Amino acid sequence: MIILPWTRRLAALSMLSAIALTAVHAHGANTSVAGDPNVLAKKVRAANGRFETVAAATAEGYAPIPCASGITGGAMGIHYVNAGYLKDDAVELARPEAVMYEPMADGKLKLVAVEYITSKGPASLEGQLFNFNSAPNRYGLGPFYELHVWAWKKNPTGTFADMNPNVSCEAMKTGD
Asked: What phi and psi, each to the nearest 5 degrees, are found at residue 89?
């Protein structure tokens, strides 16, 4: 039986591909790749879990701004913003400029995400690039870079998307 040289190469390439895929499936979940949303979300949860209660945020100098909803649906929730962190332009994992809560029907606020904000950029955190917001903007700020990290509530549009279709400000509304 004659095996052509290209057939041997194709078989070797197929075998190498199968080995590579096996390695990715076996180790992929534990691989720390810069910008990996799951790795960064875990780090954010570990560094900021203290904000599970609003009392912890206010004790650290965070103050609320109204619930932010999207034009096409979804929301960001109520931002508790630390003005000192907002002014210093530093990007630190354990010091987010804003902590985001979803208002619940029972009147409680549930931690869903954090937001990092800086006017210096382009900015990144753990390899994840920030989004740029020009001025004027709905916040009355100058141009800035921001990164939302939906570390406590899954966001089907992405871990770093601005709006989360699974978050609502409806509980904030009173009688229609």
From this structure: 60, 5
Q: What's the whole-model pTM score?
A: 0.77
Entry field: residues in the chain = 176
pLDDT tens track of the chain, all 176 residues? 554 444 344 333 333 333 333 333 333 333 334 556 789 999 999 999 999 999 999 999 999 999 988 888 899 999 999 999 999 999 999 999 999 999 999 999 999 999 999 999 999 999 999 999 999 988 888 999 999 999 999 999 999 999 999 999 988 765 43
Question: If you write DSSP's letter for every residue of 45-64 in order, what string do you get?
Answer: HHHHGGGGSHHHHHHTTEEE
φ/ψ of residue 28, rounded to 5: -55, -40
Residues in contact with 160: Cβ distance below 8 Å, sequence separation at least 6, in sequence order: 37, 128, 131, 147, 148, 149, 150
Q: Are 118 and 95 in contact (CB under 8 A)?
A: no
Give Cβ neighbours of residue 119 (< 8 Å, ≥ 6 apart): 89, 142, 143, 144, 145
167: amino acid identity, one letter: V
Beta bridge partners of 79: 65, 100
Residue 41: which of 122, 148, 130 has the closest Cα?
148
- The HSE-up count of residue 68 (CA atoms within 13 Å, CB side) is 17
